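Example S7 (structure tokens).
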């Protein structure tokens, strides 16, 4: 199988706003349930251990006309909540049994309340995470949260989630994290062979198919990409920051590449890379998931940071470890977490002589020419003066 074949399948999954693959998975067995989740992170291992399909919802992208969703939010709010409401009201998510709203911002918090009102009878949970990283404080709190989620899913499915099932699920997701990191590593080493638009589609596929299938897709891609013959271009290497929730249109990612930038790291769809290391499979699985969140989460604006001096450390590490030459701050319009953190991260970049540019987008942005010009000028300036 070639990379083109694999990416064609991933692109079809990405464009399918009726979630046909997830519907088919559910239809294959009447006892199956699907639990959807919003960006940025939920412990999918618990859903998987319940025998359910975790389904990542990233809004409607640029393929959905938002008609009803606009009535629920003011015009100065990002687009992902409106298009998600549109997905719900247009019955594209009628097969979904439950929905998790991770704690990122007030918009998502409000959306979880709206979802409860709009879809009574569905399992809805606002999934809170700790803002204290001590094992006996934030860790205990988060373990309780995880146990409440476990009980909620047990109630929904009518069956117990055993510790053994959780350990087995953690193992499958550890494998997924390893494969995802392998794809990211290959792109960082040879970005001319592994375009970012392809990496992005590979990761999007992982939101809508069972993790075992995603693991196979990643293995197939890694094997096929090894055989790709492509010439290295005189592009500059950049890290993308700020795109962790509402996603840019695929064309925006392609435009950055066409403008002469190799994206060597990013924060797109970070649920796959939220935990940097494997989660332990021995001992208490809930505690292991809790401690992994506390000590292995990547640092993004979506995660509360209690140490001012750590701000920007992770971004600078991304730059250093991927030999990046610059940072592109690309955040959704009106995204409070990303845009509030941006000036602090930009200061860190300036202090360390890392060039950067900034722009905003919406998931349905259509005009790519200004972005292509800005990214192209940035790439040229790095090549000429850095
Ligand atoms: S894009 Fe930003 S503001 Fe909007 S829901 Fe996501 S995190 Fe919140």
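Recovered sequence:
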């Amino acid at each position: 199988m070639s990379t083109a074949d694999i990416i064609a399948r991933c692109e079809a999954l990405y464009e399918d706003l009726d979630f046909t693959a997830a519907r088919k998975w559910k239809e294959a067995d009447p006892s199956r349930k699907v639990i959807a989740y919003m960006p940025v992170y939920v412990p999918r291992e618990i859903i998987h251990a319940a025998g359910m399909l975790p389904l990542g919802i990233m809004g409607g992208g640029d393929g959905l006309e938002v008609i009803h969703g606009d009535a629920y939010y003011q015009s100065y709010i990002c687009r992902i909540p409106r298009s998600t409401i549109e997905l719900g009201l247009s019955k594209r998510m009628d097969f979904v049994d439950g929905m998790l709203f991770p704690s990122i911002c007030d918009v998502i918090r409000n959306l979880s309340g709206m979802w409860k009102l709009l879809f009574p009878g569905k399992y809805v949970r606002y999934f809170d995470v700790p803002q204290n990283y001590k094992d006996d404080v934030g860790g205990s709190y988060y373990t309780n949260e995880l146990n409440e989620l476990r009980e909620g899913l047990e109630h929904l499915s009518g069956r117990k989630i055993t510790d053994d099932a959780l350990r087995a699920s953690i193992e499958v997701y550890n494998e997924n994290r390893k494969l995802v990191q392998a794809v990211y590593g290959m792109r960082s080493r040879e970005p001319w062979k592994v375009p970012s638009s392809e990496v992005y589609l590979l990761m999007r596929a992982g939101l809508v198919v069972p993790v075992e299938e995603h693991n196979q897709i990643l293995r197939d891609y890694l094997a096929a990409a090894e055989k790709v013959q492509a010439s290295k271009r005189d592009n500059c290497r950049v890290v993308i920051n700020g795109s962790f929730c509402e996603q840019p249109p695929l064309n925006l990612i392609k435009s950055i590449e066409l403008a002469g930038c190799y994206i060597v790291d990013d924060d797109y769809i970070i649920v796959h890379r939220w935990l940097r290391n494997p989660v332990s499979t021995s001992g208490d699985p809930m505690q292991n998931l809790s401690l992994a969140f506390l000590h292995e989460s990547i640092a993004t604006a979506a995660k509360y940071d209690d140490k001012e001096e750590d701000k920007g450390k992770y971004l600078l590490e991304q730059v250093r470890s991927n030999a990046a030459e610059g940072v592109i701050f690309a955040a959704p319009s009106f995204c409070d977490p990303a845009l509030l953190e941006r000036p602090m991260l930009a200061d860190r970049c300036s202090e360390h002589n890392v060039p950067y540019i900034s722009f905003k987008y919406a998931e349905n942005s259509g005009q790519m020419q200004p972005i292509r010009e800005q990214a192209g000028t940035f790439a040229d300036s790095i090549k000429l003066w850095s």
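Notes on this example. The pocket of iron/sulfur cluster is lined by residues 78, 80-81, 104-105, 107-108, 245-246, 332, 335-338 (CB under 6 Å).
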